[in-house]
Amino acid sequence: MRFKTILIALAIIALSFGVTLKAFDWLSPRAVSPLTLQALPPLPAIRQSSVVVPVSVPLTAIRDLVDRSAPRNFSGRADNPMPQLVQNADISWTVARGAVATKGAPEQVTVTAPLIGTLSARGSLSSSAQNQVGDTLGKLFGDKVAKQVGVNIKSFNASGEIKGMIAITARPKVLPDWHVDPNLTAQVILSDSNVAIGGARINVPAQVKPVIDKAVNDQIAQLQRTIRDDGALERSARREWARICRSIPLQGAGVPNGFWLELRPTKALAAQPQIDGATVALTLGIVADSRITTAPTKPECPFPAQLEMVAPDSTGVKVAVPIDIPFKELDRVIEPQFVGRTFPENGGAAAITVKRVNVAASGDRLLISMLVDAKGQKSLFSFGGEATLHIWGRPVLNQEDQTLRLSDMQLAVESEAAFGLLGEAARAAVPYLQKAIAERAVIDLKPESLNVQRRIGAVIAAYQRNEDGLRISSEISSLRLTDVAFDSTMLRVTAEANGILEVTITKLKAP
């Protein structure tokens, strides 16, 4: 009888204890207990992108342009170099230009062409010269012979060969005011030759070179002004500036409808021409502000009055695209990995079942707050209940997998109070929970990354050309995750689309 009474008493105690535990469970708060978080300033809305394009011009294209444009023939007249001996002098010259050749060297291009022509001299000896010749002949051969010979030398018609080359050197410089100064200089070199007139010798280069020099220098000066004043560079830049100033739809895999990438160019870049033995390379580019908007925009993009000079080795396409993930969306992605699961999953002295997950930011870390139900497993009367555990972590990007995960997990000090309620057995389950967070709290960014790469790639691909005299190659070859940041409401991953935009001009138009 006494044993039966004891069993009944124990059953009453156990039932009372169970009811008490259930009462605790029913009356305990169901929401995640928040901590006081450090407020963070809003993330900057704008990131910087750049498109820096190498424009290559083969020296063969420059050669062909000069060959088409430069005069092939020169002609002129020279003054009488010996008026005391020659009268009625008519000295004329003609020069033909040969095929053009080009040669490149650091900072300069040299264009050369051979010159071949003739100098013709017509006229008669002056009276005094004829008398001197007649007196000389009379003394030698007699007056009769002298008169006969003198008639033959009274008039003359002589010619001489002109041979040489012309060399034009350009040292082009890009000016900040959107113009190019070609810095042209020319040199005419003639081989030494002479024309004999009545026993006197006329030096051909002395008679022809000053006239050719003047003709060449006049044309060079005119070409210098034409190129210097030409506005083709600015016109082309204005056209492309307007094309870049736009909104690009980003809707697609991993990106909800209503998101646009706004590009607003702010600076124009240029580098001084780089010249080698085959090409002249000019570098042009823009820097643009990029931001995500919820509707298409019409950004205002004033064209810059000045170019900003940069180093020539910074070419390429780099478009920064922020991928924003609100913390509420982060909660939605993470919750299926934890809510309803019990840790450790293979059993242990205590079990922690996750009931709710919340992610927030404070300082330079993220705080994962979990409403958990903890129970001991070894004893019938093991104490347990609900409490909130707070775990700190730092977001880390994995470039290879294009994922975002948490590292440097650390139990918040504020969670220590929970163990007084849950019991020390629950503390042993926390490392398993931290390990699960590190393994499962992973955001797969590949859908967003692929969509961004595809969208930006389509914009860049629109520049491709393969026409007569012009070839444009464009491609977005990769996308990498460059940065992760957050404020009090969202987490931002910055993706950078990288590629090329290269221009080759194989046929030039005359200025």
Can you give a write-up of this model?
The chain has 511 residues and is an alpha+beta fold. The chain has two domains: 30-60 and 231-511, no CATH class; 70-230, no CATH class. The protein is built from eleven helices and 25 strands. It has helices at 2-27, 59-69, 127-141, 143-153, 204-229, 232-244, 327-338, 416-422, 424-427, 430-440, 446-461, and strands spanning 47-58, 73-78, 86-97, 101-105, 108-125, 155-170, 173-174, 180-181, 184-190, 194-197, 200-203, 246-249, 260-275, 279-293, 308-309, 316-326, 342-343, 350-362, 365-376, 385-398, 403-411, 443-444, 465-467, 470-486, 490-505. A hairpin with a 2-residue loop joins strand 10 and strand 11 (200-203). The longest helix has 26 residues, at 2-27. It is rod-shaped, with a radius of gyration of 45 Å. Residues 13-32, 136-142 and 379-383 have low confidence and may be disordered.
